[in-house]
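Sample log: Transcription elongation factor GreA.
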Amino acid sequence: MEKFPMTLDGYQKLEAELKKLKNEERPAIIQAIAEARAHGDLSENAEYHSAKDRQGWIESQILNLEDKYTRAQVIDVAKLDGDSVKFGATVTLIDDETEEEKVWQIVGDLEADIKLRRISISSPIARALIGKSQGNMVEVAAPGGARSYEIAKVEFK
């Protein structure tokens, strides 16, 4: 069984979502099915069929999240340190052309979120950064062409 890296924060969010599905969503849909069933003829009961579809979706989500939960390799970023970029690092980059500063945290595939400035370990920019240190220049192949960045800071927080 293949493990995959995940931050402690991402693991806790995954656990919370799983608990919500099991403890809130599942009982609510069971109740909705029971109420729809009480309305009589199931063959033409749209409420019943809709609730059964929702139940199938919830159960598949639970199975999917349980699989991810059991295969996660949790890494507590607060316990990491060092000068080189690795999983969990928060990296401050300076764009070589525009001098614009960008800050990214390298996280697991499941917890990547551009809006939160969290990029996947398997993304092109993260792969280019891994193993590099403050002051290094990196070139990243982007859809709009290659971009160059200077690593201004590497932190673990």
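Observation: The chain has three helices and seven strands.
Observation: Helices lie at 8-37, 46-71, 124-129.
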